[in-house]
Specification:
It catalyses: Zn(2+)(in) + ATP + H2O = Zn(2+)(out) + ADP + phosphate + H(+). One of its GO terms (molecular function) is P-type zinc transporter activity. This protein is an alpha+beta fold. The protein has 4 domains: 154 residues, 3-Layer(aba) Sandwich (Rossmann fold), CATH 3.40.50; 224 residues, no CATH class; 87 residues, Calcium-transporting ATPase, cytoplasmic transduction domain A; 130 residues, Calcium-transporting ATPase, cytoplasmic domain N (3-Layer(aba) Sandwich). A hairpin with a 4-residue loop joins strand 4 and strand 5. The structure holds adenosine-5'-triphosphate and zinc ion (ZN).
């Protein structure tokens, strides 16, 4: 993850001249590089949010701390300030939703960090236990509420001021001690956070004799804090619920053939595990016996069960419905697909989305400004206009309450986290809020052809011998060469050969040439012969001569949608045979492309395959912008070119498309459940082989943005209203607390709505 992050800010835009060439692969690729120049692009996310990742020394260690006291997100500032002077602290990362602080440091003693956090009251001091049990806390809180209300009633009914004051003070003492203590800590560190603002408001109210109000204010504040904490728990639990899908233990086959229940984290790769009907799969594996339908919703988001047979992959966390399955473990606890998804989501939460960064910057200005306004409010009217001190100070205190940026600061992360979780539930793994926000701005989506627009399982449909070797012999040579390659075309040739149950020859000096083919030596009775197998480009490179008749034969096959590879004798430089393979277009490719077009998004195809095949597939799915015969670096160049029109996403398989995926604004992969590389290389990983998820992602991005705008408007709107009401003298303290915390709660619940709509 860290490596990948560093890749991003280095994005460059290149301006090159190139054309979508319609024909074969004879086009000279050198042209692209000659005309292109690059310049670094000043990306907004190049500004490190907290510390600088690149400056972290290699010997640094990482400490993760759960700080349950990180109530209001503004407290992150307190932590930042506390560690600002320490040069051995290199990086501070805040996961405010999960309340986890990650410290990257080179300290000898981690206790230093603990001590500092105890000093700012964010960590309990183990030597003096001051915290009460939750029951006692609730009882104290309830009593405080009763007392606050009583003092208000007593005040109304004209009771003795001392009685009113004592009742109110008791209420403040019962509910407000922790707030006042935190306020004092904040004051000592010159940090303007909510606790300090509230403390000043309460103490100020007490000083000017507004006893019942002080009590009500602190009670309401504590109440709202409790509700806020509980609702944030909901967002948090939505994520840990994912991991909870994998069972703690499973039945493992022992050496003597018996089955024994073992804890999942003690089961090793290679062991055989049994999943009984109705039981969840404990670890990733390959079915070794049995059949069953399995619901893989926690991983892929699809609610329909999938039929599993011998040889199929199963995922930890999925539910084995009706049959009994035995599977051989392929990933141990901690590294299963489910674990990797959960880790990715957790990391995604730590990256602040653009809106979040903007709001954080705004809050930093907003709070001091309102604080200054309050100071002026308290002093200017009495000093200059002979207004009453009491009224002016009171108004100033109201302003202090609304100076808290809490609602604003919490409005974005809660929304983004809910949207990320909601996406994960649909089988869309988004690796950071920024991708979610950017998805709706996409101008172009570029698709890789093989395995993306097409199923990626081509089938050999024709062998045409060109020299004195027969079909069987040609196939044997091609299959032998390709038995060492992972390419889908290689698989097609090897599969066809397997059907004929012939032997595979030993290949020496094997070489795989990205985007072109393979070469290697095979023994012919007494001496080795060098062969090449690949596309026209490779034939040109190895100086294999193709006759005009052969070329037109190739072109004819290609314009029918086939991909043609040529087997050639390297020393004699003559073609021995043509192999034509055909892949099937995914059934929802065309629907997805037209849906994207209706959303105003351009589409393009970037493929290593030849122009004619690419055109045929393009026609079938509805893509007109086609770039063919591309090597991985070329794909990257074309992405940069498309970026001049606006943000570009690339959907590829994550193997030979890695450079293009990294260059695109959003790199996406399909079928990530089945491929660890695909899951790791992408910014957005679609767990299933389902193209329609792209449109779903964009819809979700739109919805997330709508909620973000709503939340920011609500938070700011309420503040502005109160600011005006206060200046006009129409508001009072407890109304302000109501408004401030009310706004926080509204934005939290509004954000959580994204979780629900499934
Ligand atoms: N192992 C191989 N055997 C034969 N030909 C190969 C092999 N690998 C690559 N080729 C040739 O090189 C071409 C380009 O391969 P590349 O992997 O870059 O793209 P692709 O998989 O065909 O398409 P896409 O870029 O859409 O995924 C293939 O179309 C094929 O002609
Ligand atoms: Zn607040």
């Amino acid at each position: 993850m860290a490596n990948y992050l560093q890749l991003k800010p280095k994005k460059q835009h290149s301006h090159g001249h190139s054309h979508a060439n319609g024909g074969g692969c004879s086009h000279d690729h050198g042209e692209h590089t000659n005309h292109s120049h690059t310049h670094a692009h000043d990306e907004h996310d190049a500004v490190p949010a907290v510390g600088d990742k690149s400056a972290v020394p290699s010997n640094a260690s990482v400490l993760k701390l759960t700080l349950t006291a990180m109530d209001c997100p503004t407290e992150a500032n307190l932590i930042r300030q506390a560690f600002a002077q320490n040069e051995q602290i290199h990086l501070l990362e805040f996961d405010l939703i999960n309340r986890v602080l990650t410290v990257t440091h080179t300290l000898d003693d981690e206790q230093d960090i603990h001590r500092k956090l105890i000093d700012i009251d964010l960590l309990d001091d183990p030597s003096k236990s001051t915290s009460h049990s939750p029951q006692i806390e609730w009882a104290m809180f309830a009593a405080s509420g009763v007392l606050a209300l009583s003092s208000e009633l007593l005040d109304w009914s004209g009771a003795n001021t001392y009685v009113v004051a004592i009742t109110a003070l008791l209420a403040v003492a019962l509910a407000g001690t922790s707030t006042l203590k935190k306020g004092w800590t904040a004051l000592r560190h010159f940090n303007l956070n909510i606790n300090l603002l509230m403390s000043v408001a309460v103490i100020g109210a007490l000083l000017i004799g507004q006893f019942p109000e002080a009590a009500v204010v602190i009670f309401l504040f504590t109440l709202a804090e409790k509700i806020e904490a509980a609702s944030l728990d909901r967002a948090r639990n939505a994520i840990s619920a994912l991991q909870a899908h994998a069972p703690e233990s499973a039945l493992v086959r022992q050496e003597n053939g018996t089955w024994q229940l073992s804890p999942s984290n003690q089961i090793n790769v290679g062991q055989i595990v049994r999943a009984r009907p109705g039981e969840r799969i404990a670890l990733d594996g390959i079915v070794s016996s049995g059949t069953s339908s399995v619901n893989q919703a926690p991983i892929t988001g699809e609610s329909m069960p999938v039929f599993k047979n011998k040889g199929d992959a199963v995922f930890a966390g999925s539910l084995n419905e009706d049959g009994s399955l035995e599977y051989q473990v392929t990933a141990a606890a901690g590294s299963t697909t489910l674990d990797r998804i959960a880790t990715a989501i957790q990391q995604a939460q730590q990256q602040r989305a653009p809106t979040e960064r903007m709001i954080d910057r705004f809050a930093k200005i907003y709070t001091p400004c309102v604080f200054m306004a309050a100071l002026l409010m308290a002093t200017v009217p009495p000093l200059l206009f002979a207004a009453s001190w009491h009224d002016s100070i009171y108004k100033a205190l109201v302003l202090l309450v609304i100076a808290c940026p809490c609602a604003l600061v919490i409005s974005t992360p809660v929304t983004v986290v809910s949207a990320l979780t909601s996406a994960a539930r649909r089988g869309i793994l988004v690796k950071g809020g920024q991708y979610l926000e950017q998805a709706r701005h996409l101008k172009t989506i570029a698709f890789d052809k093989t395995g993306t627009l097409t199923i990626g399982k081509p089938v050999l449909n024709n062998i045409i011998p060109l020299a004195n070797l027969d079909q069987a012999m040609c196939l044997q040579l091609a299959a032998s060469l390709n038995s060492l390659s992972q390419h889908p075309i290689a698989n097609a040739i090897v599969e066809a050969h397997k059907k004929q149950a012939r032997r595979v020859d030993y290949v020496s000096n094997f070489k795989s040439l990205t985007g072109r083919g393979v070469m290697g030596d095979i023994l012919n009775e007494t001496h080795p012969i060098s062969y090449v197998l690949g596309n026209v480009l490779l034939m040109a490179e190895t100086k294999v001569k193709l006759t005009t008749a052969q070329i037109s034969q190739i072109e004819q096959l290609e314009s029918k949608g086939n991909t043609v590879v040529i087997l050639a004798h390297a020393q004699h430089q003559i073609a021995l045979a043509l192999f034509s393979v055909a892949d099937q277009v995914r059934e929802n490719s065309q629907a997805t492309i037209s849906q994207l077009r209706s959303m105003g998004i351009n589409t393009a195809m970037l493929t290593g395959d030849n122009g004619r095949t690419a055109e045929t597939v393009g026609q079938e799915v509805g893509i007109t912008k086609i770039y063919s015969c591309l090597l991985p670096e070329d794909k990257q160049k074309h992405i940069a070119e498309l970026q001049e029109l606006g943000p570009v996403a690339m959907l590829g398989d994550g193997v030979n498309d890695a450079p293009a995926l990294a260059r695109a604004d959003i790199g996406m992969t399909l079928g990530a459940a089945a491929s660890a590389t695909a899951l790791e290389t992408a910014d957005v990983a679609f767990m299933q082989d389902d193209l329609s998820k792209i449109a779903e992602l964009i819809t979700l991005s739109n919805r997330c943005s709508k909620v973000l705008i709503q939340n920011i408007s609500i938070a700011l709107g309420i503040k502005i209203c109160f600011f005006a009401l206060t200046l006009l003298g129409y508001s009072n303290l407890w109304m302000a607390v109501f408004a401030d915390m009310g706004a926080s709660l509204i934005v939290i619940f509004n954000g959580l709505r994204l979780l629900k709509q499934d």
